[in-house]
Amino acid sequence: MWLVIRKTDNVVVGTQQGLNPAQYWDPVLYEIKEWLGPEPPEGNVDPTLADPDYPAFSQSKLDFDALADKANAEIDWLETNIPLVDDMTLEELRAFLKRVARENQETIRAWRYLFRRLAG
Question: What local confidence, expressed as pLDDT, does residue 52 receive?
Fold first, then answer.
């Protein structure tokens, strides 16, 4: 859910399920925050301010967005380079294989982290 918070007094003036409503609210006057807790009644103070885990939650979103950008860049690189494999020299193939192996290792570590977090 998304909270619409008036910046002058940190009061929740609305909530939105699903899509981020930021485009409909003046960013000078209102802040939009993603929130996983219970829906606060309008007129209550922003519940994220009292949540000690909220900064980590917010950072996680930024981290996952960066990871998505990295994944897109890697897909583009693979789409460009896979067709070139047949014509690569042995040294180019080694470099290609090392990069693919490093990316695979990072991916497996990320999945392992996620599975551990979800399990416990």
Answer: 93
